[in-house]
Amino acid sequence: xxxxxxxxxxxxxxxxxxxxxxxxxxxxxxxxxxxxxxxxxxxxxxxxxxxxxxxxxxxxxxxxxxx
Length: 67
Known about the structure:
The chain is mostly helical. It has one domain. The chain is built from 2 helices and no strands. Helix 1 runs antiparallel to helix 2. The radius of gyration is 21 Å and the shape is rod-shaped.
């Protein structure tokens, strides 16, 4: 997913280099900013998921349950 968002952002940057119409540029800038936010949120979500996966699995081994 990250690669897709990076490609989209690069495409928007390329369009901005070629287009002179202010209305088109505004729309493309909005879309590019949205891709940046999506990238950041995806990275945060991935970090949270990885942290959760690294926690102890209390259902697989819970010493309090065996007492």
